[in-house]
Design a protein that fits this description.
By secondary structure, the chain is of the alpha/beta class. It has four domains: 111 residues, GTPase HflX, N-terminal domain (Rossmann fold), CATH 3.40.50; 68 residues; 169 residues, 3-Layer(aba) Sandwich (Rossmann fold), CATH 3.40.50; 68 residues, Alpha-Beta Plaits (2-Layer Sandwich). Helix content is 40%, strand content 19%. Helix 1 packs parallel to helix 4 and helix 4 packs antiparallel against helix 5. The longest helix is centred in the middle third of the chain and has 36 residues. The protein is elongated and about 95 Å long.
Length: 465
């Protein structure tokens, strides 16, 4: 892996930012991916190769502006409890770290607090693991109040588990002053108690935010608009597609985790139907368990969505492995009936050489819920929109209403909000057979005082209510 051209020094007037844990933008970084010969960590998610995992870890490091000057796959036959890596590897890497003036080492795996502390002492530099790195990214990117609370909650849980890595000052004993703790309480115990208090406060604040989001969802159901949520592996092009479909200016950068907070826009499809389009945080393999729990509220939009667009980077060499990772996360979130609610979007076909494009295009032709597109150029997006319209129409109920000829407003409402299948005119009335969502049919019946004369889906509607 080649290094970045940055020198790691801040330019005049452009001081590097410092976060709470000491990482500075443009710090020189070494990225290490441990490859385990045996044990549960020897199995890579979705069959991904060590080389791909190393490149992904380097991308994560660059996402917070670390200057990745070197990367290496470390083969580990038997993990060492004290340092994970054998003593020879520790010494060799220590020489490289000193020679390259490395400021931070990224270990692309979970390491214990003891291993982190020992490696920092041996290498005389900062060491963070995969969980710590992703937390850094999330902390920097979260913009909404909810996103910031979720990141802080995850970071506090992670920090609490690593208090053991603190230095000797934490072993001092303190006398108590009531509000600081009882006699003999150690600094370690005080730190743990203060973190626990902040965790509880964050959880209460998050519950308030979740209640507010719940009210917003109820308001949308009363409108109502179907929700179409974009999901996919991080950097698959979800935000670019979101911008293409909605015409908005959401950050769409070639960075891992460019979008962390859910963004929603109301758009009108060519058939006149209005929907809410939702852009969500990208998934990634081995997502820290702290973040899966903390971001569950954000991903509730996925649970509530009428339709999921699984955006895949068709140009990525391990796109199938990424697909497996995304589906695993969706299942862990409790998303049911994934196949019935999903369109697979093979994105970035503009990055594929012309002679290699046939494979994803043929796949899209063979499988109905699959479409090949380029969100950048717009190629295939018309077919995607038509597929969205078709899939949403399948969720509607076919109802027949009998309307007096003088009640034109009711007929106009049905034409505007539904998909009229048939019209039959009689001398005193006319009948419209129309496909409507359960919410729209309830709105229509309340507004005009009419009930369907033919309802093949009556039991289904009752079950929905």
């Amino acid at each position: 892996m080649t290094g970045s051209p940055h020198s790691g020094k801040s330019e005049p007037g452009n001081r590097p930012m410092v976060d709470g844990d000491g990482l500075r933008h443009h710090d020189r970084a070494l990225v290490l991916h441990p490859s385990f010969k045996t044990g549960p960590r020897s199995v890579y998610s979705g069959g991904r190769s060590p080389e791909s995992r190393l490149e992904e870890a380097a991308g994560l490091a660059r996402a917070i502006d670390l200057n990745v000057v070197a990367g290496e796959i470390i083969r580990i036959n038997e993990p060492k409890p004290a340092t994970l890596i054998g003593s020879g590897g520790v010494a060799r890497l220590g020489a490289l770290i000193a020679e390259q003036e490395i400021a931070v080492v990224v270990m692309d795996t979970a390491i214990t607090p003891i291993q982190q502390r020992n490696l920092e002492r041996e290498w005389k530099t900062k060491v963070i693991d995969r969980t710590g790195l992703i937390l850094e990214i999330f902390g920097e990117r979260a913009r909404t109040r909810e996103g910031q609370l979720q990141v802080e909650l995850a970071a506090l849980s992670y920090q609490r588990s690593r208090l053991v890595r603190s230095w000797t000052h934490l072993e001092r004993q303190r006398g108590g002053f009531g509000f600081l703790g009882g006699p003999g309480e150690s600094q370690l115990e005080i730190d743990r108690r203060l973190i626990d208090e902040r965790i509880q406060r964050n959880k209460r604040d998050l519950e308030d935010v979740k209640r507010t989001r719940g009210l917003h969802r109820k308001a949308r159901r009363r409108v109502p608009y179907p929700v179409v949520a974009l999901v996919g592996y991080t950097n698959a092009g979800k935000s670019t597609l979101f911008n293409r479909l909605s015409g908005s200016g959401v950050l769409a950068a070639d960075l891992l985790f460019a979008t962390l907070d859910p963004t929603m826009r109301r758009i009108t499809l060519p058939d006149g139907r209005e929907i809410i389009l939702s852009d969500t945080v990208g998934f990634i393999s081995d997502l820290p368990t702290e973040l899966v729990a903390a971001f569950r509220a954000t991903l509730e939009e996925v649970l509530e969505a009428d339709l999921l667009l699984h955006v895949r980077d068709a140009s990525h060499p391990e796109t199938e492995g990424q697909k497996t990772d995304v589906e695993a996360v969706l299942q862990s979130l409790g998303v049911e009936g994934i196949a019935e609610r999903m369109i697979e979007v093979l994105n970035k076909i503009d990055r594929i050489e012309p002679e290699a494009r046939e494979a994803p295009l043929e796949q899209a032709k063979r499988h109905d819920p699959v479409v090949a597109i380029s969100a950048i150029s717009g190629e295939g997006c018309d077919r995607l929109i038509a597929m969205i319209e078709s899939r949403l129409r399948q969720t509607l109920f076919a109802l027949t209403y009998r309307l007096p000829h003088e009640q034109g407003a009711a007929g106009a409402w049905l034409y505007e909000h539904g998909d009229v299948q048939e019209r039959r005119d009689e001398s005193d009335y006319y009948e419209l057979t129309v496909r409507l969502s359960p919410e729209d049919s309830e709105r229509f019946e309340r507004r005009f005082g009419l009930t369907p004369v033919q309802d093949a889906n009556e039991e289904t509607r009752r079950g929905h209510g």
